[in-house]
């Protein structure tokens, strides 16, 4: 590791940047020591007259990023408006969001320098098309002078060798498709390297780095309740409402809202939605004279090669083409509408009896940065509205209830039966469930999470189920009514108590021991862990998590194990598990999923555990 120099003279830092950038033979003019290292764009143009535009951008960016902790705000605002200044650069500007593109399995590295110790730092990475792997590495700056104190800088080749050989200190690593940030209140001076990799497919991404995170606040802040509510539902319209961001009316920043509608899934970021909407033609470079396009070029931009021997005629082979591409979606499949500062919006021209996904993004109009609300989904009404939904024996039904609304379901078994098993799995808010058998009230309860009810049967009986939604927002749930034995049910059997028990006395600095109840049926149980903030509470968990989401939505890194378990004796149907590899003094959210024979899964009630800080 290179020993950190106490002070950096302008001459040494320029040489250091020249060591990172390709050699060009260009030498900067001598400057007075008091001159600011970040020279203006016009001054660089005068200095570099006669040189290529690419060389100008590379060397100019090196000078721009030298003074991150104390930037010239006026100069920064002038330069950041020139988007071409940061195009395809390996230097990250301070306080500006940049966009980039990754080819699959080809890492990309970005750099920036922090010259002063105890500098706050925030780095935010937003994946767009696919999950990313990224890490932040700290490398010490090369020492300015030699051991004899001659004041002469080391040769450039020697500086470059020191930077490339030293692996540095890994500060943070992440893998996934969430918007993730590294935040530190105090960082040492040095060269910071951000390395990004996409292993699934070619992908877009965004990066934001700042040394003044408290004052910058680039991304709009979400309200206490970040959910999007469905307030009205029709055959061709859906009305959405959400709480306004505090960034607009409290901080006075220009904020507008953009709504994205599609039929596939919710998006976690604005750039993920925009990447799905269209293929960026900017990455399509013109071929050299005499060179044909390959199958790679046509597949990348949404053209499907025909079967007429196009590739064979040109001697093209596919053994070197390993990237996977998705055809460009139809314009009608995904829509984006920006509506200003209104927090109520009605989506029109939808298809009846069709499920749509809705996402709302708060966009800072000045910086064009955005923050995603917790999206929702809804199914438009059918053309011929049915007052009562028929439930089929043993079939899982998805039910949507608008805010303060009601839904009626009818279950009429075709054969004699001794009992009816009713599964209710609420995804978001609690719902009120009422069950009547031939007009007689059997059940009336509020249900949140997963509940299983056993109802006494009666020959030729008919059951009417009424579901009443929450006043807080729209409700979605899964329903199952069956007269079949538990071994043939799509949902796994559940104990009456679906809580996870944590043993406080068995907690250590790196492990936690938990237990949960099982049943007499042999089921598969999978346990997952996720590190959360210390102030993470149950209310926050209910707002952010869809309880109907199964283990397939979790990251592989969060999986602890899966195992099968059952007990003929219900009094002994309990299992324990010790989760290891945890960090001291950290809070973790633990989830247990029980998976049925047909693949339907049910999650137990989540459990928060905190490891001991000292052992």
Automatic annotation (TrEMBL):
PANTHER family: NEURON-DERIVED NEUROTROPHIC FACTOR (PTHR14619), PROTEIN NDNF (PTHR14619:SF1). This is Protein NDNF. It is found in: Secreted. GO terms for cellular component: extracellular region. The keyword Cytoplasm does not apply. InterPro entries: FN3_dom, FN3_sf, Ig-like_fold, NDNF, NDNF_C, NDNF_Fn(III)_1, NDNF_N. GO terms for molecular function: heparin binding. SUPFAM superfamilies: Fibronectin type III. Pfam families: NDNF, NDNF_C, NDNF_N. It comes from Perca flavescens (American yellow perch). Residues 220-369, 492-601 form the Fibronectin type-III domain. Secretory protein that plays a role in various cellular processes. Acts as a chemorepellent acting on gonadotropin-releasing hormone (GnRH) expressing neurons regulating their migration to the hypothalamus. Also promotes neuron migration, growth and survival as well as neurite outgrowth and is involved in the development of the olfactory system. May also act through the regulation of growth factors activity and downstream signaling. Also regulates extracellular matrix assembly and cell adhesiveness. Keywords: Glycoprotein, Neurogenesis, Repeat, Secreted, Signal. Its main location: secreted. It comes from the Eukaryota. Coiled coil: none annotated. GO terms for biological process: extracellular matrix organization; nervous system development.
């Amino acid at each position: 590791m290179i020993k950190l120099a106490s002070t950096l003279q302008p001459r040494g830092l320029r040489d250091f940047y020249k060591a990172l950038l390709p050699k060009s033979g260009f030498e900067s003019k001598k400057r007075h020591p008091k001159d600011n290292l970040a020279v203006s764009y016009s001054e660089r143009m005068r200095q570099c007259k006669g040189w290529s535009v690419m060389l100008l951008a590379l060397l100019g960016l090196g000078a721009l990023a030298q003074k991150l902790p104390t930037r010239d705000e006026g100069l920064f605002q002038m330069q950041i408006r020139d988007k071409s200044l940061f195009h395809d650069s390996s230097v990250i500007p301070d306080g500006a969001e940049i966009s980039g593109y990754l080819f699959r399995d080809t890492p990309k590295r970005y750099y920036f320098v922090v010259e002063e110790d105890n500098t706050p730092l925030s780095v935010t990475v937003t994946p767009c098309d696919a999950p990313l792997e990224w890490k932040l590495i700290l490398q010490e700056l090369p020492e300015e002078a030699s051991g004899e104190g001659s004041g002469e800088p080391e040769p450039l080749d020697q500086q470059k060798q020191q930077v490339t050989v030293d692996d540095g200190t890994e500060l943070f690593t992440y893998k996934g498709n969430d918007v993730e940030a590294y935040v530190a209140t105090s960082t040492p001076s040095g060269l910071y390297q951000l390395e990004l990799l996409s292993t699934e497919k070619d992908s877009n991404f965004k990066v934001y780095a700042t040394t003044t995170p408290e004052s910058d606040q680039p991304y709009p802040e979400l309200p206490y309740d970040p959910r999007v509510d469905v307030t009205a539902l029709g055959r061709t319209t859906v009305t959405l409402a959400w709480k306004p961001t505090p960034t607009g009316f409290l901080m006075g920043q220009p904020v507008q809202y953009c709504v994205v509608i599609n039929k596939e899934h919710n998006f976690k970021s604005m750039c993920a939605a925009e990447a799905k909407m269209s293929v960026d033609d900017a990455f399509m470079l013109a071929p050299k004279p005499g060179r044909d396009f390959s199958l790679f070029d046509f597949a990348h931009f949404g053209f499907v090669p025909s079967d007429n021997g196009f590739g064979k005629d040109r001697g093209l082979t596919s053994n070197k083409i390993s990237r996977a591409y998705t055809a460009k979606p139809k314009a009608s499949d995904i829509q984006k509408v920006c509506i200003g500062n209104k927090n109520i919006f009605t989506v029109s021209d939808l298809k009846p009896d069709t499920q749509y996904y809705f996402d709302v993004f708060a966009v800072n109009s000045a910086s064009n940065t955005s923050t995603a609300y917790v999206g929702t989904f809804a199914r438009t009404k059918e053309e011929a509205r049915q007052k009562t939904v028929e439930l089929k024996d043993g079939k899982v039904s998805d039910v949507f209830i608008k805010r303060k609304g009601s839904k009626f379901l009818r279950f009429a078994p075709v054969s004699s039966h001794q009992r009816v098993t009713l599964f209710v799995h609420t995804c978001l808010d609690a719902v009120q469930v009422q069950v009547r058998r031939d007009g007689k009230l059997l059940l009336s309860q509020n249900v949140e999470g997963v509940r299983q009810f056993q109802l006494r049967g009666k020959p030729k009986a008919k059951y009417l189920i009424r579901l009443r939604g929450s006043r807080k927002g729209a409700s979605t749930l899964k329903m199952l009514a069956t007269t079949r034995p538990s071994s043939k049910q799509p949902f796994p059997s559940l104990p009456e108590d679906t809580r996870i028990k944590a043993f406080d006395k068995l907690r250590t600095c790196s492990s936690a021991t938990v237990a949960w109840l099982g049943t007499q049926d042999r089921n598969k149980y999978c346990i997952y862990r996720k590190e959360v903030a210390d102030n993470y509470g149950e209310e926050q968990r209910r707002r952010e998590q869809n309880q109907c989401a199964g283990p397939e939505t979790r990251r592989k890194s969060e999986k602890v194990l899966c195992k099968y378990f059952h007990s003929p004796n219900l009094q002994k149907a309990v299992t324990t598990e010790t989760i290891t590899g945890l960090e001291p003094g950290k809070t973790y959210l633990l989830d247990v999923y029980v998976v049925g024979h047909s693949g339907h899964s049910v999650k137990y009630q989540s459990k928060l555990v905190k490891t001991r800080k000292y052992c």
